[in-house]
């Protein structure tokens, strides 16, 4: 599953990908590629790298979201022309997990148990959906939850976007000491005027002292280790990646939902994980 690749070798980098990529900020000799998905093969995600998270349909994922996440359903996820495509669709759907009826469907893809890391550089090249009510995210959660349930074990938000703020991208940190539920959340936004029409790299560099979030080569958010307790810094345990589009919810639906925009898709060109050797 894993592969080691020296980044200063352009020949090896070319061999590892079937298509050329641009705007990569990963050309740094201290990192080596340890895990990736280029989405160049098949019509569905590689099950050796990805799983589907659907259990939260029972409780609407804690954010009053309106979608049911589905499993390997072509309406909501597929690979086409070198991209992973996650689609949120307006449709009546009876969820087999919760036995509830939903008006929207989508996919929540996770690498848990198949791609889990402590520290590294994580790069996702994506083009985002558009329209009021969309809430796409590229993020990370703890694999083992060793400090307890959310937010005690932490959450790393690499990219969040809500459709009613079409030109804003957000990065955030969630811990027991810092989260929105108690008004202490650590977050920052950056203006990206073409996130819905063009691909960008969404990146986090995470180490024992801090993690920083970038869009392409522009760093705009840093969360530092205060060297107190896990309540401030739970980011010393392994985490995994999540890719999804939510519909509505406490943030995504704050300005309502445009009923006429669906379906909406997030296109993901590649996911690459690097670690220091």
TrEMBL record:
PROSITE patterns: GH16_2, PROKAR_LIPOPROTEIN. SUPFAM superfamilies: Concanavalin A-like lectins/glucanases. One of its GO terms (biological process) is carbohydrate metabolic process. Residues 24-277 form the GH16 domain. Pfam families: Glyco_hydro_16 (PF00722). The keyword Hydrolase applies. GO terms for molecular function: hydrolase activity, hydrolyzing O-glycosyl compounds. Keywords: Hydrolase. InterPro entries: Beta-glucanase-like, ConA-like_dom_sf, Glycosyl_Hydrlase_16. Gene3D superfamilies: 2.60.120.200. Belongs to the glycosyl hydrolase 16 family. This is Glycoside hydrolase family 16 protein.
């Amino acid at each position: 599953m894993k592969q080691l690749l020296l980044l200063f070798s352009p020949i090896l980098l070319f061999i590892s990908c079937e298509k050329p990529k641009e705007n990569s900020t990963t050309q740094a000799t201290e990192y080596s590629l340890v895990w990736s998905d280029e989405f160049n093969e098949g019509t569905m995600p590689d099950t050796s790298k990805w799983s589907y998270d659907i259990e939260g349909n029972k409780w609407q994922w804690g954010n009053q979201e309106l979608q049911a996440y589905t499993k390997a359903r072509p309406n909501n996820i597929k690979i086409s022309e070198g991209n992973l495509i996650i689609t949120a669709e307006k449709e009546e759907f009876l969820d087999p997990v919760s036995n509830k009826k939903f008006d929207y469907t989508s996919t929540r893809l996770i690498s848990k148990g198949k791609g889990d890391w402590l520290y590294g550089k994580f790069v996702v090249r994506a083009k985002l959906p558009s329209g009021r009510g969309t809430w796409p995210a590229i993020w990370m959660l703890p694999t083992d939850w060793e400090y307890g349930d959310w937010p005690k074990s932490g959450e790393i938000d690499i990219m969040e976007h809500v459709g009613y703020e079409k030109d804003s991208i957000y990065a955030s940190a969630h811990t027991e000491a810092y989260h929105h539920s108690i008004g202490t959340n650590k977050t920052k936004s950056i203006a990206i005027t073409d996130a819905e029409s063009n691909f960008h790299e969404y990146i986090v560099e995470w180490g024992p002292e801090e993690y920083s979030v970038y869009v392409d080569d522009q760093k705009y958010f840093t969360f530092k280790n205060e060297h107190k307790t896990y309540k401030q810094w739970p980011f010393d345990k392994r985490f995994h990646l999540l890719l999804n589009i939510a519909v509505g919810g406490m943030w995504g639906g704050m300005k309502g939902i445009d009923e006429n925009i669906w379906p909406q898709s997030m296109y993901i060109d590649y996911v690459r994980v690097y670690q220091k050797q």
